[in-house]
Structures are given as structure tokens and as C-alpha cells.
Specification:
The protein is mostly helical and 238 residues long. Helices cover 79% and strands 5% of the residues. It has a four-stranded mixed sheet. Helix 1 packs antiparallel against helix 2. It is rod-shaped. The chain starts with a helix and ends with a helix. InterPro entries: CT398_CC_hairpin, Oxidative_Scav/Glycosyltrans, Zf-RING_7. This is C4-type zinc ribbon domain-containing protein. Pfam families: CT398_CC, Zn_ribbon_9. Keywords: Coiled coil.
């Protein structure tokens, strides 16, 4: 049983190392995802600005169509002036031409505003695209560094997993079942040291009679408070 307790303690150390490596890996992958999200956000903003340009281009096209229509109307009205014989009719057509010219001036102003807005947005898009290109280069470098670290962590995890497999072979199924259940219940820590009269898992005082059993190391002893498996570290490592 002494050797089994030693193996159980070693298993706990291996599992805690794997937990730590998995945590580091998850953090690195989270950083990588955050970088991707940052790129996606930048691309979405550029796409949104392009949609603004598309809408403005459509509005500008409609204004230009109206402008062309009004110019045609003026041309027809001015041609009609030559055929008018009464002063009253002449004044009415002249008034129509004047109104159309006023409308044309307004349309031309609106078209100019659309052109200016389109140019401004296109300038913003060009800047955003340049920033995005630089960001993509930086993110690619950062992700390559992250992947290198992840690969190293995965190598460590694989090595510890192989050691774990060998360690588990020497432990009874009943002990492993208890160990696994405690790992789930106690945030990954199933085996703790009994030291100076206390359980190092929950820091509660242990009954003195437990120490005789712990020193003998002839059975699996658990803390009466937190139910973690107790070991006397020096005894186990002998």
C-alpha cells in the first residue's frame, strides 16, 4: 500500500501539472481568438463603410437621373418658347423654366454633397484598409508565437499523459474511482499532505488517531472534513 500511496501522490502531481498546462493552453487559445475577433471587427467596419458608399452612390445616381430629366424638361420648354404667341403663355413657360433651373441648382448641390461624402468615406476606407493590413501582419506574427507556445504545451501535456498512464496501471480501480470523484468535487485536488496536525487541503485539524494509520501507510485515509485522501509526504516518498 505504501507504494500505491506514493503512486497516488505522484498521479496527483501529474494531474495538477496537466491542469496547469491545459489552463495555459486555454489562455493562449483565448488570446488567439481575441486577435481573430479584433481582425473580424476591423473587417466588419470596413464592410459597413463600403455599404455606406454603395448607398450614397445609389442616391447620387437617382439625383443624377432627376437632374438629367430636369435638363430635358428645360430644353423642351426653351424650344417651346419659340412657338409661343401670347404673353401670358410665354410668362407661364418662363416661370416653369425658372423653377426647373432652381431645382437643377438644388440637385447639383445635393449631388456635390454626395460626391464629397463618398470621397470622405473612401478616404476613411483606405486608411482602415492600411491599418487592417498592418494589423494582419502583427496578428500573424503574434499567432505564430502563440501557436509555438501551444505546441510546446501540448508536447508537455502528451509527455505527462504518457507518464500518467503508466502510473495509473499500478493503482486499483477502486482507488482510481475514489480519486477521480474527489478530483471532480474538490477542484482537481484529491490528494493532500497531512502536516503538523492539519489537512493541507482544508486546513482543518486532524484527529490524533489518524496519524498512526498515516504513518503505517497500510490503507487509504481520508480527511474527515473535506474527504480528500491524506498522505504523509515523507513516509510516502521513502
Amino acid at each position: 500500500m505504501r507504494n500505491k500511496l506514493k503512486a497516488l501522490y505522484e498521479l496527483q502531481e501529474i494531474d495538477l501539472r496537466i491542469d496547469g498546462l491545459d489552463g495555459e493552453k486555454a489562455q493562449l487559445l483565448g488570446e488567439s481568438q481575441a486577435l481573430e475577433a479584433k481582425l473580424a471587427e476591423a473587417r466588419e467596419k470596413i464592410a459597413a463603410r463600403r455599404e455606406e458608399v454603395s448607398a450614397l452612390e445609389e442616391e447620387k445616381g437617382a439625383l443624377e437621373a432627376n437632374l438629367a430629366s430636369e435638363n430635358d424638361n428645360i430644353a423642351r420648354s426653351e424650344s417651346h418658347l419659340k412657338e409661343i404667341k401670347t404673353q401670358k403663355e410665354y410668362q407661364a413657360v418662363s416661370k416653369e423654366i425658372s423653377g426647373a433651373k432652381k431645382l437643377i441648382a438644388e440637385l447639383e448641390e445635393q449631388i456635390l454633397q454626395k460626391i464629397n461624402a463618398i470621397e470622405e468615406i473612401n478616404g476613411d476606407i483606405a486608411k482602415r484598409e492600411a491599418d487592417l493590413s498592418e494589423m494582419e501582419t502583427n496578428v500573424a506574427a503574434q499567432q505564430a508565437e502563440v501557436q509555438q507556445k501551444v505546441d510546446a504545451l501540448e508536447g508537455g501535456i502528451a509527455k505527462d499523459a504518457a507518464t500518467r498512464e503508466e502510473t495509473v496501471k499500478g493503482l486499483p480501480a477502486s482507488v482510481m474511482k475514489r480519486y477521480s470523484k474527489l478530483r471532480d468535487q474538490r477542484r482537481g485536488v484529491a490528494v493532500v499532505e497531512a502536516k503538523e496536525g492539519n489537512c493541507m487541503g482544508c486546513n482543518m485539524h486532524l484527529p490524533p488517531q489518524l496519524y498512526n494509520t498515516l504513518f503505517r501507510a497500510d490503507d487509504v485515509v481520508t480527511c474527515p472534513h473535506c474527504q480528500r485522501i491524506l498522505i504523509m509526504k515523507l513516509e510516502v516518498q521513502d
